[in-house]
Design goal:
single chain, alpha+beta, Jelly Rolls, Arc Repressor Mutant, subunit A, 2 domains, 4-stranded antiparallel β-sheet, 12 strands, 41% helix, 25% strand, globular
């Protein structure tokens, strides 16, 4: 297995190199083709997982069996921690949306890290707090009365803040994927994005979407 630079993973921020080296030895990596299920809802929790490369979606299902998008995982993200900590079955599916490499750390090893290394436990707590915040934003997005407002709220949800308060949606999902996330049609997504670009609210940059006027999105979603 090629060495994984764990120092770039948020869970291991500020962790000594010697500790990272020991963790590296305990990881097992698996490759997943696009559209492959990485985790299945209801399965026992046996590992903490890390997305090394690729992209994956966390998906649940509504009462009629329709897919409900919860979050998108990017390289460096870890997942499966809630079921592991609570000793419960997996609460959602995780599906690779591109060819992906995933590292597995056994449940016992992961729990030992949290008890033996306070900095890792703190990083985990910060992650869980951010997850709660993101879930609240997700609920806010789904509660928007119109498809256009849901799309705007979704863009704010997926955007990351950079220096100078620049908001950017990295690795922009396809219009079909955005439509699924916002519970609308691809045509509505296409029209809305085109209109926002014409108005200077958004700027497309290959696979990125730069939010030039975030207030224009926020005002319509208050």
């Amino acid at each position: 297995m090629d060495k994984i630079d764990l120092s770039h993973f948020p869970l291991f921020r500020n962790v000594p190199e010697s500790t990272l080296s020991n963790i590296q030895k305990k990881l097992k990596v698996r490759l997943y083709p696009k559209k492959t299920v990485i985790l299945k809802k209801g399965e026992p929790s046996r590992h903490l997982l890390f997305l090394v490369s690729g992209q994956a979606d966390i998906i649940d299902f509504d009462s009629e069996g329709g897919e409900v998008w919860i979050a998108t995982l990017e390289p460096g993200d870890h997942f499966g921690e809630l079921a592991l900590i609570l000793n419960e079955p997996r609460s959602a599916d995780v599906i690779a949306t591109s060819p992906s490499s995933v590292a597995f750390l056994s449940k016992n090893e992961a729990l030992s890290l949290l008890t033996e290394h306070p900095i890792i436990a703190r990083n985990m707590m910060e992650h869980l707090a951010l997850t709660i915040k993101q879930q609240n934003l997700h609920l806010h997005m789904l509660n928007q009365p119109s498809a256009t407002e849901r799309i705007k709220a979704l863009l704010l949800l997926k955007a990351r803040r950079y220096a100078g308060d620049l908001l950017v949606v990295e690795n922009l999902p396809s219009q079909a994927q955005l439509a699924k996330m916002a519970n609308t049609s691809r045509e509505t997504v296409s029209r809305t994005l085109a209109k926002l670009c014409r108005e200077g609210v958004l700027e497309k940059d290959y696979k990125r979407l730069i939010i030039r006027k975030p207030d224009a999105l926020m005002e319509s979603n208050e």
